[in-house]
Design a protein that fits this description.
The complex is a heterotrimer of chains A (179), B (386) and C (174).
Chain A: H1 5-23, E1 48-52, H2 66-70, E2 76-82, E3 88-98, H3 107-111, E4 117-119, E5 135-136, H4 138-141, E6 142-144, H5 145-151, H6 153-173
Parallel strand pairs in A: 1-6
Antiparallel strand pairs in A: 1-4, 2-3, 3-5
Helix pairs in contact in A: 5-6
Chain B: H1 2-5, H2 7-20, H3 28-62, H4 78-87, H5 99-115, H6 134-155, H7 159-190, H8 195-200, H9 215-231, H10 257-281, H11 292-313, H12 319-346, H13 349-370, E1 376-377
Chain C: H1 2-21, H2 25-45, H3 49-72, H4 82-86, H5 90-110, H6 124-132, H7 136-168, E1 172-173
Helix pairs in contact in C: 1-2, 2-3
The chains are: A alpha+beta (179), B mainly alpha (386), C mainly alpha (174).
Chain lengths: 179, 386, 174
């Protein structure tokens, strides 16, 4: 027994939306990219970056190869740096991430024991060819710790505190450089 | 003010006077017809383009988003971009398709839609062709369009196109019956089929004699509007095109300009039917201060906005619900509307409105109760194996 | 104005010939539609515009559609042309059609047709008026006939639906 009232109710809802889209401030949810952008959310993950503390030649990464082993599509390639005698150093010589393969799962960040690799927020990374331009080498992936504080403040401060505590603990157990 | 009102008529007179000096006398009627036809041929596609713009913006706003707003300010150049896109698409014809029919179908759909514009009274003295049987011409020509849709579906050699075309056809002829019945009441009261006379019969009393303010006129207006939404295959009656149902129904296999012609026919039909509803029930070009063609445009614009509003609000009808709505509800309503109009005409003033309103209310409530929504289960009857 | 008559006559004849001679049945139906439209044009030339509009509304809008639906239900839509399809009976067909043409032409020639249009146009008002005063009995008989046809169609269609529901055990009442 409708008598057509439901129709009128539905139409009034749509008309209200129409009028409010002109009068009320936040009723249109479109973000007019590229003039406006959405806010940066802290835990947004896109493609990975490597973090260094003081200078780019000494990254936190020790080339342990765990992230390369855990990566599901196997987009990370790591070759450990060796010194003149051929002994292994604690940093990578080659650290390649193929961005066309990376699926932004974040597993590399979760398993890294040295807090060296983190997921970045950059998504405007278009290139003109797939093979070379999207295969990021180590120089392109290294970012300073200040950048990490910028994009992930709470996590970065937590990690810094943890690392400092570890440093203090190591200094305490070292036999007497300072008494 | 008089000059502004008759602006287009004066323009046409100036053109004819200018041509009189160098054209021989027998050709002048042809020139006059040619001027009217050119005006319609420019106005109609332009209207269609900006109706598509209006639809996209309005539906966008109803859905909490902007419509197109990149191409030109407020997206006003979007229809031109759409036109260029459709012109440059490849024309794909399916392998086993009937080439002649496939080629003719879009043309046969657009030509009747354009012909509809010739009997609309755009303003005072501004009907392109003032036929004595204007309204009958309107209805006859729109029934040719339904045939062309069938041609379109058949020629594609695609089972789903054919299904879409059959359903389209069944829908369109079912809704033509209440459409004609609602128009019959107007013709009965006015006594003429000419659109100019119908507009003139609604003049006087400052707009209170518009037929929509009478009981049978109001019901007739509702009937005409609902049936015209169905005749142009717009949501909620767009089973034939059913985007996301049977791919695109009867115009699946058409690409590029042919699809643009089908699309154009739909919007031209929407405009023409809204204009006819404004003429028949809302008093045509009559109105107090503004020029007559502006009033006509405003009334038609309001009705087209309502059609777009309906599209933004409702889901699609199922095909059996659609047919049962036409035959079980709208058609008897149309018949009782004729009865009410006849009684209204023959009884004196206060009684006429009371009788007509009572007849219509009773039939509306009765029909609503006779067509309950939803399905109910019957008593279980068992069939045992013998 | 004679020019219009000849043009229209040519178009109509082409439509009629196409309806008989084409291979594809759907093309035949479309030329039949052209023929109907030509006849409507003739009515306009005779100043009977109401009949012209009704011709388009009924013939093109309804009868042609019926023809198209019937064609869709046939199996072989593309066949041979009518002339080739006759085969052996070609000569009989030619003979009989010649006889019919002769009879019709002689019958028309013997009539004394007026060579001018009647005085005063028949307007729609007059047609309506005579339908309910002079010709009211045929009018009512036709309405009863149409009602009977509609009821018959509904009865034929309804029975099969009820049988189908009983057969499948479908309990819904829609």
């Amino acid at each position: 027994m409708s008598y057509g009232l439901g129709i009128l109710k539905g139409m009034s809802v749509t008309l209200k939306q129409f009028v409010e889209s002109y009068t009320k401030k936040g009723s249109i949810v479109t973000v007019q990219y590229p003039e406006e952008r959405r806010e940066d959310v802290e835990r947004f993950r896109n493609f990975p970056i490597l973090v260094y503390d003081e200078k780019p030649e000494a990254p936190r990464c020790v080339a342990c190869d765990i992230c390369a082993k855990e990566c599901p599509p196997k987009c990370i390639t790591i070759v450990r740096d060796r010194d003149e005698q051929g002994r292994g150093l604690q940093k990578p010589k080659v650290f390649d991430i193929d961005l066309s393969v990376c699926m932004s799962c974040g597993i590399c960040e979760e398993v890294c024991p040295f807090d060296a690799i983190f997921m970045d927020h950059q998504f405007e990374l278009s290139a003109y060819d797939r093979m070379e331009s999207l295969n990021y080498h180590q120089e392109k992936l290294l970012k300073p710790n200040s950048y990490l504080h910028q994009i992930r403040p709470t996590d970065a401060t937590q990690i810094d505190a943890k690392l400092k505590a570890k440093e203090e603990a190591k200094k305490k157990t070292q036999p007497g450089t300072t008494a | 003010m008089e000059r502004l009102d008759q602006l287009f008529v004066l323009l046409k007179k100036i053109i004819l006077q200018f041509a009189e000096s160098f054209l021989p006398a027998p050709l002048l009627p042809f020139l006059s017809i040619l001027v009217s036809i050119t005006a319609i041929a420019i106005f109609a596609p332009l209207t269609m383009m900006y109706l598509t713009w209006l639809e996209r913006k309005v539906i966008g706003r109803m859905q909490n988003r902007f419509g197109p707003n990149r191409v030109g300010i407020y997206g006003l150049l979007q229809p031109i971009a759409d036109g260029i896109k459709m012109l440059t698409k490849e024309d794909v014809i399916p392998l086993g398709a009937d080439r002649v029919t496939h080629f003719l179908a879009p043309v046969a759909v657009v030509v009747p839609s354009l012909l509809l514009f010739s009997v609309l009274p755009f303003g005072r003295n501004m009907t392109a062709v003032n036929l004595d049987i204007g309204l009958l011409f309107f209805i006859a020509v729109s029934s040719i369009g339904t045939l062309a849709i069938f041609m379109g579906g058949w020629a594609s050699r695609n089972k789903f196109s054919l299904l879409g075309a059959m359903r389209a056809f069944a829908q369109m002829i079912s809704y033509e019956v209440p459409l004609v019945l609602s128009v019959v009441t107007v013709v009965m009261i006015v006594g003429s089929l000419s659109t100019e006379k119908i507009v003139e019969a609604q003049s006087g009393w400052g707009g209170l004699r518009w037929f929509v303010f009478t009981p049978w006129g109001f019901v007739g207006f509702m009937l005409f509007f609902i049936c015209s939404v169905s005749e142009v295959n717009r949501t909620p009656f767009d089973i034939p095109e059913g985007e996301s149902e049977i791919v695109a129904g009867f115009h699946t296999e058409y690409s590029g300009m042919k699809f643009a012609l089908f699309y154009m026919a739909e919007f031209l039909g929407a405009f023409a039917y809204s204009a006819m509803a404004a003429t028949l029930f809302l008093g045509g070009w009559q109105g107090p201060l503004l020029p007559s063609w502006l009033w006509f445009g405003l009334k038609t614009f309001c009705l087209v906005f309502t059609m777009i509003w309906l599209r933004g609000t409702f889901p699609r009808f199922r095909v059996d619900q659609l047919m049962s709505y036409a035959w079980k509800f709208l058609f008897p309503m149309g018949l009782s509307n004729i009865l009410a109009a006849g009684i209204w005409y023959h009884t004196p003033f206060p009684l006429s409105f009371i009788f007509a309103t009572w007849i219509l209310l009773l039939s509306f409530i009765g029909l609503s109760r006779l067509n309950p929504t939803g399905t109910r289960l019957e008593r279980r009857t068992y069939r045992f194996a013998e | 104005m004679e020019l219009f008559f000849y043009l229209l006559a040519t178009l109509t004849l082409l439509g009629a010939l196409g309806a008989v001679l084409l291979k594809n049945l759907v093309h035949c139906a479309l030329s039949l539609i052209l023929f109907f439209a030509g006849i409507a044009g003739f009515y306009i030339l005779l100043q009977a515009e109401f009949i012209a509009a009704v011709q388009i509304l009924i013939y093109v809008g309804a009868v042609a559609t019926l023809v198209l639906f019937a064609i869709m239900l046939t199996q072989n839509v593309i066949g041979e042309t009518t002339l080739k399809g006759l085969g052996q009976n070609r000569w009989w067909a030619l003979g009989i059609s010649l006889v019919v043409i002769t009879v019709l032409v002689r019958a028309i020639q013997h009539q004394t047709l007026p060579s001018f249009l009647p005085e005063g146009r028949v307007t729609t008002n007059e047609i309506g008026h005579t339908l309910v005063t002079t010709y009211v009995l045929p009018f009512e008989v036709i309405s009863i006939l149409l009602t009977g046809a509609m009821i018959g169609a509904i009865v034929v269609a309804m029975e099969t639906k009820k049988n189908k529901q009983q057969a499948t055990g479908d309990r819904r009442r829609t």
